[in-house]
Amino acid sequence: MSIRSKRKDEHIKLAEKFYSQKKINSFDEMHIIRPALPEASVSKTILRTKMFGKDLAAPFFINAMTGGSQKAYAINQSLGKIASKTQIALALGSASILIKEHDQLDSFIVAREENPEGVIIANVNAATSANDAQKIVSELKADALQIHLNAVQEIAMPEGERKFYWLDNLRKLRQQITVPLVIKEVGFGLDRATIHLLKNEGFSLFDIAGSGGTNFAQIENARNQSDLSYLETVGLPTVISAIMAKKEKVDFIVSGGIRNPLDVLKALCLGGKYVGIANTFLQVLIKNDADTLLQMILNWQKELAGLLAIYGQTDLQTVSSIPKYYDLQLQNWLQQL
Known about the structure:
- The protein is of the alpha/beta class.
- It has helices at about 5-20, 70-85, 105-115, 130-140, 150-155, 165-175, 190-200, 215-220, 240-245, 260-270, 280-285, 290-310, 330-335; strands spanning about 30, 50, 55, 60, 90, 120-125, 145-150, 180-185, 205, 250-255, 275, 325.
- It has one domain (about 5-335): TIM Barrel (Alpha-Beta Barrel), CATH 3.20.20.
- Helices cover about 40% and strands about 15% of the residues.
- The chain is globular.
- The mean pLDDT is about 95.
């Protein structure tokens, strides 16, 4: 097994080790007001949406997880089947490994083989050349490309990068890649200044990936001989990052700490166009099996439809109008920022 493949498997193992279903995050400090007279009925058809020109059964999807090892092959195979059966999108983990280890292609492309008609999103790091990125998109038959910004993770990673001059390459990627691009954080939250800068550079879709879910500083610190645990607190909470994105008037995906259908509804209420879930789904798959995760996602679709009804919603386009309020600590953050 190569060093890169070993690292991929270590990430999966450590994500499982540090996962807590009861982990508190910024969604617990956000509250939405339910009308006692909702005047709505439960209908899963309300959930239907389009993503990159394809019809989907729900606005939430399986966000980037893994690829690049035998263990990742099995995970992506299962996720591809589940995405196909539930008609939701699937984003793959970083495929940058394919530039130097093309023999790992099968661990990514298996998802497309299992989900030939669905939405598949490829993922590369921000330093990937436009030519390499386009090759990855073509080989994976991807509908879109996530470009992840992971400076904090790289600093915490023992073998990580130490140069973060990415903007010029992002410009090249925007000019040359033939599918839609998504600028994505990896659990530390996109700040408003970065969103504003990249919006002016022509980028139009962002995955804010705030703190509150998988913490890659924690994961990489567990692989590091030095104690860099102080990096585990540098992220922007998901709710804060989402509000920043909305103020910039861009389309954005809310991810980072989604634990249940109510979190999905809150993410949509914040203005998210889509909602990404990674580790919550991954742990169900690892600790149980594919059928359990399949049923969980089907249940989430049914439960989200129920939540929309009791909150008086008959159209996804109006969800952001649900009244909301925040606990004092979160409100203080918002006032200062």
